[in-house]
Amino acid sequence: MKIYDGQNVRNVALLGHGDTGKTQLVSALLYAAGMVNRLGKVDEGSSVTDYDEEEIQRKFSITSALAHAEWGKTKINLIDTPGYNIFMHETEAALLAAESALMLVHAVAGVEVQTEKVWGFCEKYALPRVVVINQLDRDRASFERALSAIREAYGRTVVPVQLPVGEEKNFRGVIDLVRMKALLYDASGSGKAKESDIPPELSDAAAKAREGLIEMVAEGNDKLMEEFFEKGTIPVEDLIPGLKQAVTERRLYPVVASAGLPNIGSDALVNLIVDYLPSPVERREVTGLDREGGNPVKRKIADDQPVCAYVFKTVADAFAGRVTPSPSSGTR
Ligand SMILES: Nc1nc2c(ncn2[C@@H]2O[C@H](COP(=O)(O)OP(=O)(O)O)[C@@H](O)[C@H]2O)c(=O)[nH]1
Ligand SMILES: [Mg+2]
């Protein structure tokens, strides 16, 4: 088995209201990362994480499920969770195994009842999160409208790091506001972008959005604030670590544009997970109970510490009996 350093692992839960496209997005990310050889689809019963008969038949997730992607040196464990109210206990249990979350928001429906619920879970477990405005290819989808609903609900620390290129059936890519490049996806559904210049009609909007991002990254970071006042901007080599720090410290919640079904934005999102979301090592320590007296003990999370596991899910398999999936193996 391949061994990864703690700093090269990401445990990411996908959260959101039912039907925001979590299960579809997991399949899209796995395909973009080259982990599976076709783009699995919820509607065809071929998604990677809705594999239970009942889930395939009903076309929604009932339990949380694990899948993993390798991306360069990094192993990304994706935890797909159910979005329906009656299965929320599964979702909450999965969060104990995650250091961060992708919060999916439907580009047509905006903030919904379970969005608020799972946002509350993230607050409870102090999880850094990326807001994914998803299904931007749908009729009546609007990045701007969804974004203002999210900001109205959660405040100005929710800040775009991408803007969509096109919308509804013309949605074809994203602008990376950190590197100021357009990432365009073709109709093949590969999830892999071609990098190009920002389309001229979007350059003003992109420049303005970038300014907003830079200001938020600098806020709460004295060194960057000084640099910002001195130069009127923050160079990209300081912006990247500054943004990572702000995300990890939950001073900033980055927003991205996506559509899992046509697989648009996927490799950009995988890169973002690696670049900006924290590894388990950055969680630093956890509290558990000792075996003798049940007294609370703290354990550092580091590669040189003894193995210590937290079981967040056990499945009863008709053939294999009870199975406890580990993040390193996935459930299938
Ligand atoms: N047009 C479009 N449909 C999508 C997209 N993502 C998911 N869907 C559809 O939305 C429905 C719910 O998707 P699913 O992944 O099961 O949502 P979940 O409940 O959040 O896991 C399914 O019919 C999907 O085919 C997308 O990006 N664009
Ligand atoms: Mg699902």
Structure write-up:
- This protein is α/β, with parallel strands linked by helices and 332 residues long.
- The chain has a single domain (7-323), classed as Rossmann fold (3-Layer(aba) Sandwich), CATH 3.40.50.300.
- It is built from 9 helices and 15 strands.
- A 7-stranded mixed beta sheet has the order 2-3-1-4-5-11-6, sandwiched between helices. A 4-stranded antiparallel beta sheet has the order 7-8-9-10, with no helix packed on it. Strands 12-13 form a two-stranded antiparallel ribbon.
- Strand 14 (315-317) and strand 15 (321-323) form a beta hairpin.
- Helix 1 (22-32) packs across helix 9 (266-276) and helix 6 (203-218) crosses helix 7.
- The longest helix is centred in the middle third of the chain and has 16 residues, at 203-218.
- The protein is globular, with a radius of gyration of 20 Å.
- The site of magnesium ion has 6 residues, from helix 1.
Secondary structure: elements and pairs:
Blueprint: E1 9-16, H1 22-32, H2 53-58, E2 65-71, E3 74-80, H3 88-95, E4 100-106, H4 113-124, E5 129-134, H5 143-154, E6 158-160, E7 162-165, E8 173-176, E9 181-184, E10 194-196, H6 203-218, H7 222-231, H8 236-248, E11 253-257, H9 266-276, E12 285-289, E13 296-300, E14 315-317, E15 321-323
Parallel strand pairs: 1-3, 1-4, 4-5, 5-11, 6-11
Antiparallel strand pairs: 2-3, 7-8, 8-9, 9-10, 12-13, 14-15
Helix pairs in contact: 1-9, 6-7
The structure holds guanosine-5'-diphosphate and magnesium ion.
Magnesium ion binds next to helix 1.
